[in-house]
Design goal:
The protein has a seven-stranded mixed β-sheet with strand order 1-2-7-8-9-10-11, with no helix packed on it. It has a five-stranded mixed β-sheet with strand order 12-13-14-15-16. Strands 18-17-19-20-21 form a five-stranded parallel β-sheet, sandwiched between helices. With about 425 residues, the chain is of the alpha/beta class. The protein has twelve helices and 21 strands. It folds into two domains: about 240 residues, Metallo-beta-lactamase, Chain A (4-Layer Sandwich); about 160 residues, Flavodoxin domain (Rossmann fold). Helices cover about 30% and strands about 20% of the residues.
């Protein structure tokens, strides 16, 4: 099914990446979609590793079930199952734990080490039918260690990168970080190492944007644990093994996780971004009046963007740094317009929890768009402190004044002057 390094007999062979440390994973070059949402033009790898110490062997991570045969053949090329004393699962997602039940059957003396957050997932991975005996496992956290005699495995708790159970494992004496999904990417190349494979920079950044970006705060917490380490090599569960200047990838993660707009707006200013799409100019006029009203509140910087003017992707960074977002759309065929939905859909990679949201728009017949946008924002964990504003057809001067009130209310909620009460504009008449 896969391909890659082979032994002298033509069977899948292990690759020694450091003295006594072997790659025993699998290659999946034909994969084109991962977890539904990720495109994988170059396929992916399921990296697993074997570490030999003078008091036994450790296996760090396994592979997707469909590639178990390759994994076991590579393992068998460098060790006997009777030597395996330690099994580490940095993350229990099926692409890493697929071969775990069979490995524990073949190495019944081994003890499994998982994070404290992984126990509930382990019960789902290891069904009762998978073994005739209880599985031996131990939970570990940051600073816990397990000895292989002359080698030490130290654990780092790195939750939500990108599942709650994620951890990293550090081989102390060799400076090798088995990082799980952190510093990984979906890029399959049988040459394995970052200084030998093709140019995978796009894949690395693409993976970060779709997998790690929603958890930037957790990335920064993990970097505090990783940056002080002596790093000779980073061995993630997907993509190239980072042996050439591994620390630059740590630095790049910090750059990707740090706001590029941090110096562009004063610390005491709050940012409101207003997006809109207008069929005949009415929603555009509403947006301009909302901006004018919001700008009357001191300490709020307002930006206005017409979605007809370009793609949605360039706005993602701006949205991530904004404190509040307002979306304006006419109602066409009982729905909001596609560019607004495209932008809202792209926000799955952004942490929006706690941001303020608002919706507005002009309509001709039914006006469902505003309520639909509000529902979507609430689904994204945003707070909607001001009820959406709908105006029929062309707004009058009085209605534009209502839009300015809407903008002031939203800005007041943003700076704390409004306590988030949902406003019914019928009360203002």
């Amino acid at each position: 099914m896969g391909q890659g390094p082979q032994d002298a007999t033509g069977n899948p062979g292990a690759v020694e990446i450091a003295p006594g440390v072997h790659w025993i994973g699998a290659l999946d070059p034909s994969l084109r979609t991962f977890d539904i949402i990720l495109r994988t033009a170059n396929g992916t790898t399921y990296n697993a590793f074997l570490i030999r110490g003078d008091a036994g062997v450790a296996v760090v991570d396994t592979v997707k079930l469909e590639f178990a045969d390759e994994f076991f053949r590579r393992l068998e090329s460098v060790a006997d199952y009777s030597e395996v004393r330690v099994i580490v699962l940095n993350h229990l997602e099926p692409d890493h734990s697929g071969a775990l039940p069979e490995l524990m059957r073949r190495a019944p003396q081994a003890r499994l080490y998982i994070s404290t957050r992984a126990t509930s997932m382990l019960k789902a991975v290891l069904k009762p039918k998978d073994s005739d005996r209880p599985f031996e496992y131990e939970t570990v956290g940051t600073g816990d260690e397990v000895s292989l005699g002359n080698r030490t495995l130290r654990f780092l708790h790195t939750p939500f990168l990108h599942w709650p159970d994620t951890q990293c494992t550090y081989l102390v004496e060799d400076g090798v970080l088995f990082s799980g999904d952190v510093f990984g990417c979906h890029y399959c190349d049988s040459r394995l190492y970052n200084d030998r494979v093709g140019d995978f920079r796009f894949s690395f950044d693409y993976y970060y944007a779709h997998i790690m970006r929603p958890f930037k705060a957790h990335v920064m917490d993990a970097l505090k644990l990783i940056e002080p380490l002596r790093l000779m090599m980073i061995a993630p569960t997907h993509g190239p093994i980072l042996r050439d200047r591994p620390r630059r990838y740590v630095t790049h993660y910090r750059e990707l996780s740090t706001s590029s707009l941090v110096d562009q707006i004063d610390n005491d200013e709050r940012s409101l971004v207003v997006f809109y799409m207008s069929a005949y100019g009415s929603t555009a006029r509403m947006a301009e009046a909302i901006r004018a009203g919001a700008e009357e509140e001191a300490g709020v910087r307002v930006s206005l963007y017409d979605l007809e003017g370009g793609e949605t992707e360039p706005f993602v960074d701006l949205i991530e740094e904004a404190n509040a977002l307002a979306f304006g759309s006419p109602t066409i065929n009982g729905d909001a317009v596609k560019p607004v939905w495209d932008l809202l859909s792209s926000l799955a990679v952004v942490n929006l929890k706690g941001k303020l949201g608002a919706a507005f728009g002009s309509y001709g017949w039914s006006g469902e768009a505003v309520r639909m946008i509000e529902d979507r924002m609430r689904g994204l964990k945003m707070r909607v402190p001001v009820a959406g504003l709908r105006l029929k057809l062309i707004p009058t001067d009085e209605e534009l004044a209502e839009c300015r009130v809407f903008g002031r209310k939203l800005a007041a909620a943003l700076v704390g002057g409004e306590q988030g009460r949902v406003i019914d504009f019928s009360e203002l008449g």
